[in-house]
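>> received
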Amino acid sequence: MAKAGLLSLLCPLLAVAFLVHCHASEKKVHIVYMGERRQGDSSPASTHHSMLAGIMGSSESAKKSLVYSYGRSFNGFAARLSDEEVEKLSDMEGVVSVFPNRILKLHTTRSWDFVGFSKGKLGAPLEGNVVIGLLDTGIWPESDSFNDEGMSAPPAKWKGKCVGANFTCNNKIIGARWYNSEDLFDTTDLPSPRDSEGHGTHTSSTAAGREVQGASYFGLAEGVARGGVPNAGIAMYKVCWSFGCSTADTLAAYDDAIADGVDIISVSLGFDLTPYMEDPIAIGSFHAMKKGILTSNSAGNSGPNPYSVSNYAPWTLTVAASTIDRKFVAQVVLGNGQVLIGLSINNFDLDGTAYPLIWGGDAANFSAGASPAIAGFCSPGALNSYKVERKIVLCDAMVAGSQILIANGVGVIMSNSFYSVDFAFSFPLPAAVISNEDRVKVLNYIRATENPIATILVAQGWKDVMAASVVSFSSRGPNPVTPDILKPDITAPGVDILAAWSPLAHPSIDRKDTRRVNFNIISGTSMSCPHASAAAAYVKAGHPNWSPAAIKSALMTTATIMEPGKHVDLEFSYGSGQINPEHALNPGLVYDASEADYINFLCKQGYNTTTLRMITGSNSSVCKSTTPGRAWDLNYPSFALAVEDGQPIQGVFTRTVTNVGNSSSTYTVSMSTPFSVSITVEPPVLAFSKIGEMKTFTVKLFGPKIAQQPIMSGAITWKDGNGHEVRSPVVVYNILPGRKYGIPTSSMTDQKTDKFEGPSMYHKTGILGRN
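>> returned
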């Protein structure tokens, strides 16, 4: 068959799976971002239609092209555009950026107790005033986690609604919308806010689910499941489907969520290395911040690689994932009596029966062209079912499990060289994941034994004495775009979290698993994010007038300090530490920041006055210079100094703290200093006489020239002697010459200088969280 003919047959399949367009001339969805909606602009949709009609030549073509008109909370639109039309729109006055509709990926009974938050002390009335908006895969409204018994009506400020067939809101789920700009639906996708993937139901119940007695995953982790703020309202904005989550839909959801009146936005998805004003989460969260709404988002699941952190805008809370003091252990018992420790959420009971054991490489499906090396990895179709039938299979890599079942195997033992063995998956058959060292023991046993046998025991919840520690998959800093802003900001439980689940979704790593559950145990920064979102909502409930920056500061400066000896990358893995919601209610001092502070920050990122006036909708936004500069004067609750190889340690940071503790109080600074770094703080004492009073101080870091120096860390802590300890981490690290303003790529430097005058970058999307 000719190549063109083959492509014509394959392309429709690729289009569904990967959003590939089958014709080069076919128009593709792009987002046209135009900044803040100007006061007096009564009809943004009319403006958007006129712009499209102007470049397309007809009103009818414009109408067919328009996908979304963003105008409730900011200004912009999504439309199907040709390359030529993209170019024309990019040059139009009033347009900040034009970028393609890309696909983002989705990045509990014990976790809240583990962080010392068994039950909030604020009570239902205050919690009930807070609404958490989640951008996710939807929600299953019939779950017990979302019953509204005893809950009052939504707060008077609420303007949201339920949109979609066969979906009813209540006093718990007070809003639900769905978005699908590409009009693509898999057979499992439901065109409604209803969840068929499970992810959104899980994150929603983690953040704000009601108490459910006797929740478990097939009897594992049985206990009381609840969210962090069980009396808060939930608003679901379904932007994610079986194929992922599009940028156009994400911005549409932000446009609605801000206008609907949510208080906290929880986003467990993201891009890596994307310019701030081409990142829908950075754009949406900026406009949310302007309206007093904090966005909590996941750091990503691309760890432990450095520079892998997602969602690094300073106006958002970026959340890493750490373990809790429970891990699921599925022991492997060999016929020679050896007992090996495996990790797996294994609910299958083999009743102690031993089965024949075989290495996948000894069961190669030669008729399918498999070799022992390929079969050793248990690749799909590589196993000989005659040899595997009724046996437990040893695989040299992680597998979903369906290939073992297809070959009539009864169980699987796997090794995992990609991640550390520090979190568990669930599988559709008896399974255990062991270390590479133990894999060698199993293989040696098979080789030395004429009839090797083994069994896999049902998983048990063991106490993890190493908790809390940041899990291997959690994305790490440094911040790839702005090295002077430490990211992630904080860590929260994200490993083996039990929460509600959609009964339409497969419960294990294998999408072919036909079992169904009401609660599931999964891991990811997608799971840690709603923990932090709930903590932010809790602080918001106690302090409804605090700004997003103040809430974020309270969470960061009161975080539980992580043990540095467990983490080679220190604060690049956990930020300020692990969330401590109760302590965050009374932080003593906060590092506040306003829109003007972030505008000054963006000026130093290379954005100019013209662009920033469009973004803010105000002519008062002025950049004195568009020359890239250091971010040392942004009032951030942590300190990061990136030093180019061979240069001396030298940085001056200005910070202002606001008193939110005792009206009359005096704070004295204490410092823990990393090796070879000197820190001075002036003044060393801050005296306050009233609530709301602000004091400014300067931090100077200096030291010798350094090169190839891994992260060094210390801290600055303000103490008042009455229980308030306001702690900020200080990190110093080396970067390559020329990278003090981030990792340069062509994505932003190729833009016209009337839009932007500075470096940034674009990178791949990352999976941000589910099994």
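>> The two ends are 39 Å apart (CA to CA).
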